[in-house]
Design the sequence.
C-alpha cells in the first residue's frame, strides 16, 4: 500500500512529496521492534569506496541505527526503488522494450517531462507535445492513436483564431497530407473553416474553436504518454480505491452470507466470488490452469512449455515427478510433445 501511495505522488508529479512520504515510512519501519527485519533495500549500507553492500541487522541497535543512517545518506534511493519496481512491472506486463531500457532515474524524468508538456498545453502551446508525438509516431500509429493529428488540428485553429490565414494554409499544406487516409472528413471541415475566419465563433464551424478541445488534448496526451510507459493513465491509488469501492458491496454481502451459514473462506489469496469490473479497469487476463482448474498466482504462475501450451507451475512440477523412470521428460497433457520442467518459461499477462 505504501508503494501505491508513493507511486500516486510520482504519477501526479509531486516528487518531493513522494520522497518525504517514503522517508516517513522508512522512519516508521526503523522504529519497529529489533526482531523485525527491514526490507533488504533499507537494511544495508553501501560502501562508496568499493560499491560493496554490508548487512547491518546483526543486532537490534545496529539494525535501527544503520537503517536511519542509510536513509539519511540517500533519500532518493527509496524513490528509485519504487521507480525500479515500475520498470519491473512494465517488463512483467509485456512491455519488454520499455522495461529493459528505462532506468529508475529515467522514470522520474519521464514524468517530469509529461507534466512540463501538460503545462504548455494548458497555456495553449502544442510545440512540446508535437515534438513528443512525432518522436513516438510509430508507437502511436500502432495503437491507432489520433494524438498527433489532434495536436496539428489545434495548432491550425490557433492560426485561424489569430487571423493568420496564410500561416494556417502553409501549416495545413505541410502536415495534413500525412493524415488524409484516416481523417479526410475532419481535414475538409478544417480547411472550409478558413472561409469564416472573421467570425469563427458564430460560424457552422464554431465547435472547432471550443475550449473543450484543449481539455481533451491534455487528457489524451497523458493517456498516451502513460500507455507508452506501460502504465495506466489513472493514478495507481485512484485505480485501487475505485476497484475496492466497486468490490466492497459484493464482499460485504458474501461475508454476511458466510456468517449466517457459519462458514469461513480459507483461500487467503483468492476472493470467494468473482467481482465484475468495467472494461476500463481490466488490465490483463486471468489465467486458469487447464489441468488443476486453479487460478494462477505469484506463487503458482503460468508456465509455457516448448510446444506452446500453458499450465501452472504446480501442475508442471507434478507432471515432472510423474514422468517415466530414468527420464526427466514428460508428455504435454494436450499434445504429443515431450519436454522437461526446466524448459518451461514463465508467462506474464
Sequence:
Amino acid at each position: 500500500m505504501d508503494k501505491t501511495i508513493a507511486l500516486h505522488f510520482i504519477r501526479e508529479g509531486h516528487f518531493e512529496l513522494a520522497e518525504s512520504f517514503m522517508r516517513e515510512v522508512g522512519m516508521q519501519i526503523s522504529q519497529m521492534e529489533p526482531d523485525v527485519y527491514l526490507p533488504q533495500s533499507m537494511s544495508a549500507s553501501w560502501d562508496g569506496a568499493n560499491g560493496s553492500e554490508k548487512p547491518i541487522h546483526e543486532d537490534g541497535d545496529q539494525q535501527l541505527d544503520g537503517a536511519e543512517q542509510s536513509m539519511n545518506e540517500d533519500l532518493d534511493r527509496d524513490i528509485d526503488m519504487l521507480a525500479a519496481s515500475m520498470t519491473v512491472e512494465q517488463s512483467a506486463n509485456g512491455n519488454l522494450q520499455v522495461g529493459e531500457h528505462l532506468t529508475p532515474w529515467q522514470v522520474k524524468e519521464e514524468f517530469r517531462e509529461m507534466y512540463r508538456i501538460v503545462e504548455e498545453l494548458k497555456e495553449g502551446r502544442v510545440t512540446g507535445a508535437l515534438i513528443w508525438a512525432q518522436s513516438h509516431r510509430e508507437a502511436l500509429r500502432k495503437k491507432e492513436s489520433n494524438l498527433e493529428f489532434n495536436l496539428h488540428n489545434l495548432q491550425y485553429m490557433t492560426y485561424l483564431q489569430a487571423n493568420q490565414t496564410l500561416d494556417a494554409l502553409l501549416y495545413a499544406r505541410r502536415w495534413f497530407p500525412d493524415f488524409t487516409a484516416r481523417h479526410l472528413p475532419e481535414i475538409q471541415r478544417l480547411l472550409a473553416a478558413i472561409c469564416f475566419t472573421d467570425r469563427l465563433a458564430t460560424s457552422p464551424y464554431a465547435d472547432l474553436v471550443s475550449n473543450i478541445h484543449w481539455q481533451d488534448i491534455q487528457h489524451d496526451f497523458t493517456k498516451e504518454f502513460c500507455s507508452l510507459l506501460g502504465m495506466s493513465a489513472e493514478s495507481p491509488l485512484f485505480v485501487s480505491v475505485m476497484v475496492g469501492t466497486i468490490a466492497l458491496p459484493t464482499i460485504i454481502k458474501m461475508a454476511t452470507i458466510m456468517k449466517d451459514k457459519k462458514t469461513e473462506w480459507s483461500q487467503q489469496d483468492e476472493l470467494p466470488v468473482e467481482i465484475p469490473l468495467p472494461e476500463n479497469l481490466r488490465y490483463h487476463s486471468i489465467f486458469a490452469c487447464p489441468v488443476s482448474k486453479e487460478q494462477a498466482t505469484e506463487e503458482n504462475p503460468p508456465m509455457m512449455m516448448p510446444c506452446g501450451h500453458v499450465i501452472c507451475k504446480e501442475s508442471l512440477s507434478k507432471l515432472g515427478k510423474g514422468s517415466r523412470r530414468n527420464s526427466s521428460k514428460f508428455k504435454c497433457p494436450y499434445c504429443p510433445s515431450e519436454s522437461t520442467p526446466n524448459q518451461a518459461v514463465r508467462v506474464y499477462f
